[in-house]
Amino acid sequence: MSLKYGVLGLLTGEPLHGYEVKNRFEAMLGGTWEVNIGQIYTTLQRLERDGLVRPAGPRGDRGKQTYELLPDGRRALEQWLAEPDSGPQTLHEDIYVKLLLATRIANGDLQPLLARQKRAYLQRLRDLNRLEERARRDGRIDLARLVRGALLHTEADLKWVDELSSGRTTETETPR
Amino acid sequence: MSELVRLTDVTKVYQGGITGALNGVSLSVEKGEFAAIMGPSGSGKSTMLNLVAGLDRPTSGTITVGGTDLARLGETGLARFRRDHVGFVFQFFYLLPNLTALENILIPSQLKGTSATGRARDLMQTLGIADIADRFPARLSGGQQQRVAIARALINGPTLLLADEPTGALDTHSGEHVMDLLGQLNRDGQTILLVTHDAKLATRYAARVVSVVDGEIVDDARLETAERAAAEIIRVRPEEASR
Question: Of A150, B30, B70, B205, which residue is least crowded by CB atoms under 10 Å?
Answer without folding.
Answer: B30
